[in-house]
């Protein structure tokens, strides 16, 4: 019994001490969890790597790492990729062997970074590379040595870099100017010296480069520099250029007020939707001869000049939906020989004599699938199909002035209405106030032939 008393006292003391250790144990748990998170930091790196989108298309593997704030490539990226997209990151220097692990690479997109220096061995190991995009960077000089590891290179973009056209650039320019390299370095221009500013590298007299180095220096030992000029960003610098799987210039949602003047000539698709382009002027797409799809939707577009689509011989799809178009001027569509799809939805089409040209053109191009031709004005025709309005309009011509055999009100199928429309079209531009007229009745012959039996 004497021993039992102290034992009970000891048990009570241990029980009272347990709550004090409770909070301490929770703190330990919290710190332990924090320690686990710290150990998980390599997992964060994996998640950042996983942000790059990996996908297959046409049997080839793409790794899309665009807009990731990257300053270099990651060593844990898959090495069997064929196309690496690194546009719009923060890469400043291309180091030797930077891409050597990607031995199967066919295209490398480095546009819109901050690249100012390319070491001679930066592209070592890329023996399969055919396409290299370096436009919209800060490169002033580079050597031919950097391109030597690329025996299959057929497509190189260097424009919108501040090239310093002096002696160090000599070897690169000579390579670009070889007849076999017709797709290397197109549109790249000199930024300095002042005497060569604006000249294309492809057409530059190479002998002038080193002569510029011999120009007299100023008293402080430096060559005089041109006065600083604030560079206004080119419109295409704001756009995203994609080469694979198809060449695409994405200028949507860039607050553009006009068509960019420096459009690439080899673009197949061009997206200019959701801007503020209100007027299309003649020959603005003249250099984009390979264009097959043009999206101009949602621009508040209200006027298209004759010749605006000049040069777009191969255009297949044209999207003009969600604009402010009332009608097309005569011959606006005449350059679109192979158009197959025309989107005209959500435009306030005005159903009067001006709308006839559009229907006339569509009837003579039955292979064009079009949508959205509904009258908005005037009130009496609102909601009508434009083609139905045109039938009614022509059907109201007085009978005594119609051509013999004209099927009144069925002009969509009859050949005589087409003839009448051709007469209207022949009026040309500037005859808008003259209403469409049917062909005049033929004057009967003044003599009669009688067959004698």
What are the SSEs and their pairings?
Layout: H1 4-39, H2 41-50, E1 53-57, E2 60-64, E3 83-85, E4 93-94, E5 107-109, E6 117-118, E7 131-133, E8 155-157, E9 163-164, H3 170-176, E10 190-192, H4 207-213, H5 235-238, E11 240-242, E12 248-250, E13 269-271, E14 279-280, E15 293-295, E16 303-304, E17 317-319, E18 341-343, E19 349-350, H6 356-363, E20 369-371, E21 375-377, H7 386-395, H8 415-426
Please describe what this structure looks like:
With 453 residues, the protein is of the alpha/beta class. The chain folds into two domains: 161 residues, Ribonuclease Inhibitor (Leucine-rich repeat, LRR (right-handed beta-alpha superhelix)); 192 residues, Leucine-rich repeat, LRR (right-handed beta-alpha superhelix) (Alpha-Beta Horseshoe), CATH 3.80.10.10. 21% of the residues lie in helices and 13% in strands. It is built from eight helices and 21 strands. The strands form six sheets. The chain has a seven-stranded mixed beta sheet. Strands 1-2-3-5-7-8 form a six-stranded mixed beta sheet, with no helix packed on it. It has a two-stranded parallel sheet with strand order 4-6. Strand 1 and strand 2 form a beta hairpin. Helix 6 packs across helix 8. The longest helix has 36 residues. It is elongated. The relative contact order is 0.05. Keywords: Leucine-rich repeat, Repeat, Signal. This is Leucine rich repeat containing 17.
